[in-house]
């Protein structure tokens, strides 16, 4: 064996180390799945092994996974997918005709009539057409071109793809991407991985986490000194904050994007999750086009949707799409090329997406059950949103904005100075210290606000509103009791 | 408005796809709208996609998936008991008992990581595999992209280089482009059945000098598209090479269960590595890849695969395992993978049918590979090494000089022109060898041979008809 390899690696030394690997791949602790979740899993193991704890189960209210918390899938969707998976079931008269019809149509569009064949990289053509029609219906008739629809492996995949496309330049010309604080950490992680510059703009906690263009301008102007701002990301309804942006706000953002030549990325995966009175989902595209040709022909935009949230909750399928608006044809050709590298998105996810955009119609046998199930899920979430805000606001030291939409609450917690000091002593961020204690003492797993970003000196946690109502009530009461005890202990 | 100048230069540098599959799709579309062309449908065999070509999925797999999708079927007596029991077990492994949840970890469902580890241990005659070293992913293309992304650093002369076979899988070059890696081809020897020759490895490394920083070697075994099965001697040589030259071994072993060549056996790189003992067995860094896009399963569209990492630095391994977070791989393909590595056992109600279906698949593949190879070797100007495994045949074409000139005049590669004409005239889509790394001096085409035998006959008949017409058109 040579003393030193041709590439300089000393004999016997590891080739791949933290120093020699891609420097952009950080060992990022994704708060949503990070150390607190690892500890939760460990505690669950201990409980199974019979270790005595002050609680009998760990309630994982850390991740936006509806089915994991007991939400039922939509019957119609699962029937069609089962038929697609094993078409012999098409002979079974236990399945309704409309389910069979959808299954046949999907299978006809698949190579060899099988979900197992590769599809076109941009997604199955007739499904993209169905998505375009869905968007047109949703947006009051504003036309959508199937060629501008790209099916993806969940919305996350599409989001990362667009970010990857738009990152360029060196040094002060490096692409800057505006993201909200607090934010869903996929964005910050993707930007770190791509070596793009993160431009943070703060949502206003005092006005229900609304977005203020003044703040956008402040963040942008400051960023211009060290990067080239090119993209503005917005999550609506918001994660983790749950705010549903007003129409006026959306218009202001679009106006701002046009003035500053920013590419708008509208993450709208929670578009059906709107609960608060007076709140309504306005798609960015719809508002854009209603603002007239001065905007609708100029502003570049991508909107994202998926099968993971809303009333479906089918995270495990990784179904999603993006619609690109006003993209230069040559740029679009690059996008089409880029998505072809990964071959194709999972076909079952594409099939599920087709059902989401093409659900049972009033004249079809499965319609009433479908509507019943859909209504029940959304009503349940709305009730839990209300309950959460109500109970948290009875706790001195916890301030909770109305959960207008999405699936989370992001209340602010007042932490005594002694607790902050104790946290620092243990090398923990204060809200992580708080959440760890809550986990150990009550078996409730939340995510500290530091995982999402927050104004300096403030502390929050994110809790999902997904546990079943009775369990949620217990969780809320336990958190209330814990908070009072904690405050007492460190006063 | 953004222009192409504003697009990520690395994305711009990704080579432009040849586009035959899009052409095939467009022609299919025209046909379905009643276009003028004479034939009814397009047969696209340019990818390893058995279902597209008409092969059926495995019944047990699809039955289990159907029950997992619609658990009301757990009470369906017409479905075999073992199907329902397996589905029950798999549903219990999912959060909330639903395949709609995220995986419990970003590396996949822990019970399935365990099943995969147990499968590998059995396959490798007891050499242990740790579930912690298994990462599940949405297909081997995604797996590869994660590892390549991890390896990628530097720009220009300091850019990471990866040794890749010539020919390589047609899906590989774009992946390297996307991750900003320099490909360093090592020639496989066509006249020795596409064997790997260590001299070629050294040559590829020498070519890297001053151009890039080589840090990994990619192996496809059994070979895609060559069908070559590496023997123990070759594998040992490659491992020694990787060890002495400081290279990470990336080994794609998707065709491991479709070896049909006489006296050929699949040997996993991991098994050979461990049998070599120290210092190799505890120092050589190895990542092995497998997926459900196999000949027997053919579940390409489900997008399921895994990697096993061996001797990887713990910090690097942790980074690798985090790379899919906060997302996680899709659930359904993980379930299919579990069935693949843990099929019905003797005595189970479905075992007989499962085994029959697998054997039928194996037989068809072997017969088709043999039949098609003989046929190709009978065509003037075409020669084909027999495949020992895998889904593809990869014949060499000696095209008339005039045709080469015509291709040049049109600004396309000659093998692309061949495939394009074949597609337009006969409705069959082959893959041009330039996608696999070959060039005008060494023209090849590839096609997947796993299809119903009657369909293969049709493809071969059309090939002969087209090829003879072509030669007539361009007399020597």
Automatic annotation (TrEMBL), chain A:
SUPFAM superfamilies: PLP-dependent transferases (SSF53383)
Catalytic reactions of this protein: L-alanine + 2-oxoglutarate = pyruvate + L-glutamate
GO molecular function, one term: L-alanine:2-oxoglutarate aminotransferase activity
Biological or metabolic pathway of the protein: Amino-acid degradation; L-alanine degradation via transaminase pathway; pyruvate from L-alanine: step 1/1
Cofactor: pyridoxal 5'-phosphate
Aminotransferase class I/classII large domain sequence ranges: 80-479
Protein purpose: Catalyzes the reversible transamination between alanine and 2-oxoglutarate to form pyruvate and glutamate.
Annotated protein name in UniProt: alanine transaminase
Source species: Kryptolebias marmoratus (Mangrove killifish)
């Amino acid at each position: 064996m040579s003393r030193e390899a041709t590439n300089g690696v000393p004999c016997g030394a590891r080739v791949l180390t933290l120093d020699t690997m891609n420097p952009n791949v950080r060992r990022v602790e994704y708060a949503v799945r990070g150390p607190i979740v690892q500890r939760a899993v460990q505690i669950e193991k201990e409980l199974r092994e019979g270790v005595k704890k002050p609680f009998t189960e760990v309630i994982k209210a850390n991740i936006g996974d509806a089915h994991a918390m007991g939400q039922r899938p939509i019957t119609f969707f699962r029937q069609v997918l089962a038929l697609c998976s094993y078409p012999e079931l098409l002979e079974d008269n236990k399945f309704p005709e409309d389910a069979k019809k959808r299954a046949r149509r999907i299978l006809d569009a698949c190579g060899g009539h099988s979900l197992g064949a590769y599809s076109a990289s941009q997604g199955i053509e007739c499904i993209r057409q169905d998505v375009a029609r869905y968007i047109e219906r949703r947006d009051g008739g504003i036309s959508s071109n199937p060629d501008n629809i790209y099916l993806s492996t969940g919305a996350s995949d599409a989001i990362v793809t667009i970010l990857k496309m738009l990152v360029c330049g060196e040094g002060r010309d490096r692409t800057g991407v505006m993201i909200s604080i607090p934010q869903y950490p996929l964005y910050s992680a993707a930007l770190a991985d791509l070596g793009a510059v993160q431009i943070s703009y703060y949502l206003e906690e005092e006005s229900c986490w609304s977005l203020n263009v003044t703040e956008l301008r402040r963040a942008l102007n400051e960023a211009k000194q060290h990067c080239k701002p090119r993209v503005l990301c917005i999550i609506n309804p918001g994660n983790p904050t749950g705010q549903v942006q007003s129409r006026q706000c959306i218009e202001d953002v679009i106006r701002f994007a046009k003035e500053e030549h920013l590419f708008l990325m509208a993450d709208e995966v929670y578009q059906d999750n709107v609960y608060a009175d007076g709140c309504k989902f306005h798609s960015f595209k719809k508002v854009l086009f209603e603002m007239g040709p001065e905007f609708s022909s100029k502003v570049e935009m991508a909107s994202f949707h998926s099968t993971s949230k809303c009333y479906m909750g089918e995270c495990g399928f990784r179904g999603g799409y993006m619609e690109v608006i006003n993209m230069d044809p040559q740029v679009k050709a690059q996008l089409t090329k880029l998505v072809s590298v990964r071959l194709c998105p999972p076909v079952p996810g594409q099939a599920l997406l087709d059902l989401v955009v093409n659900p049972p119609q009033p004249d079809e046998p499965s319609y009433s059950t479908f509507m019943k199930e859909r209504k029940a899920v959304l009503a349940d979430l709305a009730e839990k949103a209300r309950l959460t805000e109500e109970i948290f606001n009875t706790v001195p030291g916890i301030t909770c904005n109305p959960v207008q939409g999405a699936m989370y609450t992001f209340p602010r917690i007042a932490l005594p100075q002694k607790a902050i000091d104790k946290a620092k002593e243990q090398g923990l961020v204060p809200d992580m210290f708080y959440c760890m204690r809550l986990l150990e003492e009550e078996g409730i797993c939340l995510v500290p606000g530091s995982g999402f970003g927050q104004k300096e000196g403030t502390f929050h946690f994110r809790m999902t509103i997904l546990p079943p109502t009775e369990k949620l009530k217990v969780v809320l009461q336990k958190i209330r009791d814990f908070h009072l005890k904690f405050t007492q202990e460190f006063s | 408005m953004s222009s192409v100048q504003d697009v990520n230069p690395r994305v711009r540098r990704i080579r432009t796809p040849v586009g035959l599959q899009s052409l095939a799709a467009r022609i299919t579309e025209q046909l379905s709208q009643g276009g003028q062309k004479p034939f009814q449908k397009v047969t696209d065999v340019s990818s390893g996609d058995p279902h597209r070509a008409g092969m059926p999925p495995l019944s047990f797999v699809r039955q289990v998936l159907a029950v997992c999708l619609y658990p009301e079927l757990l009470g369906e007596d017409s479905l075999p008991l073992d199907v329902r029991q397996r589905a029950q077990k798999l549903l219990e492994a999912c959060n909330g008992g639903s395949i709609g949840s995220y995986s419990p970890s970003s590396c996949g469902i822990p019970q399935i990581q365990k099943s995969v580890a147990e499968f590998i241990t059995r396959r490798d005659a007891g050499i242990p595999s740790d579930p912690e070293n298994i990462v599940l992913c949405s297909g081997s293309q995604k797996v590869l992209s994660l590892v390549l992304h991890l390896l990628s650093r530097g720009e220009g002369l300091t850019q990471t280089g990866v040794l890749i076979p010539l020919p390589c899988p047609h899906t590989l070059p774009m992946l390297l482009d996307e991750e900003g890696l320099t490909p360093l081809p090592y020639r496989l020897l066509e006249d020795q059945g596409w064997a790997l020759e260590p001299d070629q490895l050294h040559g590829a490394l020498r070519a890297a000098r001053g151009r890039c920083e080589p840090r990994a070697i990619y192996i496809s075994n059994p070979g895609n598209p060559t069908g070559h099965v590496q023997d123990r001697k070759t594998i040992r040589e490659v491992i020694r090479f990787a060890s002495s030259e400081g290279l990470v071994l990336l080994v794609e072993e998707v065709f491991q269960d479709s070896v049909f060549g006489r006296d050929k056996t699949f040997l996993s790189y991991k098994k050979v590595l461990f049998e070599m003992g120290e210092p190799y067995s505890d120092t050589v860094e190895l990542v092995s890849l497998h997926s459900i896009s196999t000949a027997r399963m053919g579940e390409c569209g489900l997008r399921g695969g895994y990697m096993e990492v061996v001797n990887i630095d713990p910090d690097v391994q942790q980074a690798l395992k985090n790379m899919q977070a906060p997302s996680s791989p899709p659930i359904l393909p993980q379930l299919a993978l579990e069935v693949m590595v843990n099929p019905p056992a003797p005595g189970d109600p479905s075992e007989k049918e499962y085994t029959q279906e697998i054997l039928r698949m194996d037989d068809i593949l072997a017969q088709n590979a043999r039949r098609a190879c003989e046929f190709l070797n009978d065509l003037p100007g075409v020669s084909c090494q027999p495949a020992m495994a895998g889904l593809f045949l990869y014949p060499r074409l000696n095209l008339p000089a005039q045709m080469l000139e015509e291709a040049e005049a049109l600004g396309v590669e000659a093998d692309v022109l061949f495939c394009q004409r074949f597609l337009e005239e006969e409705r069959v889509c082959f893959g041009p060898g330039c996608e696999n790394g070959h060039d005008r001096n060494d023209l090849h085409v590839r096609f997947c041979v796993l299809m119903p035998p009657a369909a293969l006959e049709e493809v071969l008949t059309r090939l002969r008809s087209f090829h003879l017409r072509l030669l007539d058109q361009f007399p020597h």
